[in-house]
Amino acid sequence: MIAHIAILLAFQLVGEVIRTALGLTIPGPVIGMALFFAALLLVPRLADSIRATAQGLLAHLSLLFVPAGVGIVGHLDRLGSDGLALFAAILGSTTLAIVVGVLTFVGVARLTGGRDD
Amino acid sequence: MTEFADIWSYLSRDPLLWLTATLIAYVAGDAIFRASGRKPIANPVLLSVVFLAVVLQATRTPYATYFEGAQFIHFMLGPVTVALAVPLHSNLHRLKSAALPMICALFAGSLTAIGSAVGIAWALGVTGETLLSVAPKSATAPVAIGISEAIGGSTTLTAVLVILTGITGAIIATPLLNAMKITDWRARGFAVGVAAHGIGTARAFQVNETAGAFAGIGMGLNALLTAILAPLVVSLVFG
Fold first, then answer.
1. Which of A18, A22, A103, A104 best tests the B interface by mutation, with the highest count of B CBs <10 A?
2. Whole-Å CA distances, B191 to A27, A106, B106, B209, B227
3. Domain coordinates of chain B in residue numbers?
4. Considering chain A, what percentage of its residues have pLDDT values greater than 90?
């Protein structure tokens, strides 16, 4: 368990170093995820040993957004007089993006015959 | 009463109090979510945020004090993002066969998210810095904030819009996709990850592991693509 956390943190650290060194806008953890994915492709054994820890952490991914969520409550007034328009933009565009994304995925999958198993 | 005040003034300065409060709020939010029969509207993130906001308001606790304790939870976002590589790897065979649908859905979803957000806000009279802050709202928070800064938006406002987008996506995804009769977990997860980043991904993991894995890759890829597309859309609209 501790070794697994150390591995995850090490990949995040390498990601942060790459981000800073190359001046990228992509966050360090996302770079770390890509690198860790590459490492799992090279060493599939690693995936088996870390799977339980990863599943345990990911099952509570929602919890990790709570501190940031509490942070925005104090800034809701920042929406100001545009509040209603911004809520409409969020609701409308999130709905549209999901609909367009999912229909594109399903449509292209059907065309290319890439069915799920 | 003095005694209680003493204890409170001691505790309220200690990270332990707000760390514990955050976990209790989440456990309570999650319990309500389960008791509701896992209704998407009873979103555990939304519920715990509301509980904690009420408590902070009632105790006149500044956010900085709260974050002293909550930062330990917030910190875990980093390693857990790295851990998203594991379900991705477990779904490797699915990933290979879905490369083309993913790329197409990524471009379509990302462009729709940016374009329709800016379009709707503009049509409803939003202008200037506020309108610019809307563009990157479907990307994961640190990326969205970086983009907002680069294109001249307000980073605070973008952070608020990003979180609201995530919660909105987490709430509407299941009823919306069920109504559309979409049964492909890959497509469902991926679209939600692109549209509603980490909070949408967290929701996808609650529903189905394959959906979660595809949501994670959707979020990661959209972080990359929004960084490219948002400045382009903005320069088209404002150029």
1. A104
2. 21, 10, 8, 15, 18
3. 2-75, 94-238
4. 64
